Amino acid sequence: MKQVNKVFLLLVCMTLCLIAYNPKVAFAAKPASKVKTTKVLPGSMADKFKTVNAAFDASKLSDMSDFDPANPIIPTGDTIKIAVVASFSGPAANVGNLFWICVTWAAHDINKRGGIWVDGKKKLIQVIKADHMSKADQCKKVVERMILQEKVHVLWGTNGSHMMRIINETANKYKVIAMDAACLNDDLNDAKNFNRYSFHVAYSVEQVGRAIAYYYGQIRKKEKTFYILNQDYGFGYDLANAFKNGLKEYYPGAQIVGEDYHKLFLTDYAPYLEKIKHSNADIIFSGDWCPDGANLLKQARQMGIKAPFAHIYMTDFPNVLHDIGVEGTKGLNTLDAWAVDNPQFKTEGHKRIYNAWHDAWKNKFSAPYNTRDFELFTAIYGYRTMATYWLLSVIERAKSTDPEKIISVWENDVYQFVNGKIVFMRACDHKAVMDLAMSTFVPWEEQKVSMNIPPYYYYKGTSWYGPTDVIPAAKILPWMDQKLDRCKGKNCWGE
To answer: What are the DSSP E strand ranges found in 56-212?
Structure first.
């Protein structure tokens, strides 16, 4: 009997050795990677998800020295088509440019690698501009043209929740994947508006409002009076309500000393700023996006208002921040989906893509992308570029452009960005779950606390990222509509 056992063990060992040296097995798909992070906070994504389904591999990053977003290389033939639906003209034209560079960067990289193997063949990524001009009627027309004439596989959008709703509705009608990379409104994915073809990869209004309230009430614990000034449409009101609800939960001693809403693309903020000036508010809370946020901050400082802003879009307009100067931007608090941990550059992969982006900007980018606004791979560019890689990873793992196959992979997917950030796609309502971070702007010579590679600052002419505090996902899980049948009986993790 002992002899039989010995023979059996010998056979097992020989089998294992053969497997080890079998090339087909050796190069089989690797198991989900363990999450790498410098610290794990209770309730954080790293605490919740010990492994990820896929991660961005910076070692495969192409030579991007020939990348110019103003003159992208347009592939031909049978391609995977992505339409960037945004404002490329009018007062919000720069928003479209912000989005365009993120998508074309990822497309350029993947194309230089040879594309993605889908539908039985290697396909390159083609990115198409779809200008909605911030007009609802134009948005519907351009989206339908993208679907029916251009035959796009993905609609990538956009600025303005009213525009994103049109994109989602049209995507649902024609059964095309829509990715919401910028709009935060929770009602885009509620029981009334949810559709299985749309995925919300941005953070959400409820997360933002509660995260900022959590920061001031549970982390900072200094300022107590707040003035709310937002844009006069759904997003502005929803954000204000989320913040106020967050204060009730996390900072009951805080006080709202004023609350106003202004029309989009306002040029004169004086009437509102006069009220803020006389309110003696400690903090101005605003979710204004470009160009409104830039104009608001600039005019506030011109009127001598020194109160810091609590904001989510301060990182979107470094040119304006530079004009305001170091002192005018010092002390601003910005909520960010990108800066999830200090030091900012904690992986060699993060350093590599940062340097590749900056080098391309310095040597290749042409107008309008050769300005300070587009210099660095961080904040808006970091997150939305990585979100695009996430989309492409899902398509690659689905091995198809079939929307149904893409949906099956993306639901409950866990993906890791180059900086270590982990994102999870909640299956029942297609909302991304993530940690967020609050950063305080400091003078350029103090930015080494987060900028730990040369030149050790983000921007020399303005205050920028300094100390950063992570808000764990469990504290600010995005709102989930229990009236949505798919979500009934589940917790906010979708479980």
So the answer is: 80-86, 116-118, 121-123, 125-131, 154-157, 177-180, 198-200
Among the ranges given (200-204, 207-211, 451-455), the one the predictor scored with the smallest mean pLDDT: 451-455
User: CA–CA separation, 396 vs 122, rounded Å?
Assistant: 10
Distance CA 142, CA 129 (A): 10
CB 260 within 8 A of CB 290: no
Query: Which of 393, 395, 360 lies closest to 374, judged by CA?
Result: 360
pLDDT of residue 33: 65
Question: How far is residue 30's CA from residue 222's CA, in Å, rounded to a whole number?
Answer: 48
pLDDT band of 9, cuts 50, 70, 90: very low
Enumerate residues 6+ apart whose C-beta is below 8 A from 372. 318, 319, 322, 459
Query: Taking residues 196-211, what's their average pLDDT?
Result: 95
CB within 8 A of 223, min separation 6: which ones? 216, 282, 283, 308
Higher-scoring residue by pLDDT: 79, 313: 79
CATH 3.40.1190.20 fits 57-202+344-429, yes or no: no
Burial of 377 (0-12, 13-18, 19+ CB in 10 A): buried
- In the three-class reduction of DSSP (H, G, I as helix; E, B as strand; rest coil), residue 3 is classed as helix
Q: What residues does each domain of the chain span?
A: 57-202+344-429, 206-341+437-474
Q: Is the fold of 57-202+344-429 the same as that of 206-341+437-474? A: yes
The DSSP code sequence of 41-74 is -TTSHHHH-SEESEE--GGG----TT--TTS---
Taking Cα atoms as reference points, which of 378, 375, 407 lies closest to residue 391? 407
Query: Would you list the DSSP string of 396-426?
Result: HHHTS--HHHHHHHHTT-EEE-TTS-EEEEE
- Residue 486 and residue 411 in contact, taking contact as beta carbons nearer than 8 Å: no
Check: pTM over 0.85? Answer yes or no: yes
| Rg of the chain over all Cα atoms, to the nearest angstrom | 24
- Decide which of 3.40.50.2300, 1.10.1040.10, 3.30.420.10, 3.90.1570.10 is the CATH code for 206-341+437-474: 3.40.50.2300
Crossing angle of helices 136-148 and 161-174, in 10° steps, is: 30
